[in-house]
Amino acid sequence: MIEIIGEDGTEEYDAAVAISDALAKLWPGLRESPSELEHVKIAPNAKLAGYKVSDVDIVVAGVFAKPRYFVPRKALHDQDGKRLGSIKVKVENLVVAVEVKGHDAGGINVAGDEVTVRYPEGWKSATGQNIDQVHALAKYFEHQHLSTWVYRCVALQGIPALPISNGKSVPEAGAVAFGFSGSDFLTAVAGVNGVRKFGRDFVLSSIPMTKARRVLEASIFRAIVPSKLDRAKMDRIAARRSEAKDLAELLGQHMVRLKGHGGTGKTIMLLQAAHEAFVGHGRRCIVLTYNVALAADITRLLALLRIPGASDGGGVEVKTVMSFVYTWLNRLGLEEEEAEDDFDAYVGKCATALEWIDTGTVSTSDISKAKDAEQSLLDFDVVLVDEGQDWPQAEADLLTRLYDPSTILVADGLDQLVRGERTNWHAAAGGKENVSEKSLARCLRMKRNLGVFANAMAENAGLNWSIEPSDEAAGGKVLVSYEPYTSLGPTRQALLVEAQATGNSLVDFLHCVPASEVVGTADGPRSNLANQFELEGLATWDAVNRAARKDFPRSLETARIVQYESCRGLEGWVTVLDGLDEFWHRKFEATLGRDVSNSGFVDPNERASRVAWQWVMIALTRPIDTLVITLRDPQSVVTKVIGAVAKSHGDFVQRID
Questions:
Q1: Residue 194: is its pLDDT beyond 90?
Q2: Whole-structure pTM value
């Protein structure tokens, strides 16, 4: 069996069809063969979230229980580098990352095993891009607990044959030209790293056969289907073009700062500006957020919109800010490894890098050379910052040294501080006159009743917080229970049926859980809610686990679960806040235990309460249609505030137990 997973209409899809046809011709009967005997999956335009490379042109994976062989088109080497003569190679399984290039002969250069291609700004290594894809895919499978060897190949679809040197086609391995055969493809794949001998056979294999089929089950081989909520977000990104155009036009003239409370559409407007900068101007954009779950969610949305990563023709990358800055720290010589560190050490390294730049130890020329050397990782025309109010000042200042402040757009969530003191972007940009500001007040996410509820909660909690409830979407309800959400089986089923009746899906639900609902397992943290859902036969995206958080849900019938700390920027048609009062209490206690000598608050309890409520307001602004709140303690602070609000708004705040 051969499957191609993805939508047609792209150069990558055409190349995927060519690979499928070549393998089918090499091995007659492969297309009709039962999947339990042999199964090939080909995913063009594959998206990854949370890795250095977000786009892999084509991923090919195959498992062959039935013996399949090919005869190499040129001499190969074994794993020790010994040249092999006339042999045949058995293919047990394989995983291949394919880089597709459509350049003609004048735009391709070959030196040894490296293919470079010409762009307006100069020559770039297609082989280097392919190697980066290999590393990202290998790391992705590692996070699926599959240690997989990923082969590589560059498909040069714009030339009829590889260049000839001294009577031999070059490079010796790692590339195929248009019209390639199955043997050509497998020879290129095997030629990079050689083949191994097991018994009497030379073998091509990526992973032990006992685990090979698990590779085919990986999420990257599942088609991403948009839900109704996804389509609404996609429409919103493509709509309001005049506002997005205005923002895109400002970039390059002034830093732009979007201000608004949760639910006012900052993240969507950020993506609208990125979309316009790419579609209208062909700019290379990067979206930075410290929320790993949000980075995955945005990547999913970009995949549905078919917006590429920041390639040579423009596009949009999504990175967590710490990962991105650590890449810079590595290039500046401050960090040997690019792994993320603890937060305090990270802020200190940002400050050191800033000092190096300001004192001339690192020059403007050094920064430009780093961008030229790592164009796919560091060279961007537009930088879009999500939740910019929470950046350490040294981090923000460093960004404005690495990129022209006028190319930066910052989404600033008012009163959503969770990492420290408010960031002064005016100072980072060199003064208030260098910043254009746009305030967002109207609630764009929540139906009207939910906006009213959020305002009432803030007022009763003593916060100076308010949004303008929607005047376009009436309705919305709040359900309150003193039972854990795992115990509300009939309610959960009724909510799903109700959502499906309006065209929504399980993936449109957002479930937030406190730390007490997370347990340790051999595979890392896992939520009790995910365990319960899977007992009921439901698939889950259990993002309390960091490995799961780096990917994104690809099926409509997947329940999304996050810890409260990861909910910023996300939304759900139905949003569940499980154990909300427990979450408030944890944030209160954590803040109370910190040093408040410079806080400016006379009463530490007042400060801790305010911080805890700010966290709660972030969670309260995630729903669109229905908000479900479960409480643990009938006497808790949160319970009492909700009780007071329910008395005034009993028409849409309901008790369900």
A1: no
A2: 0.87
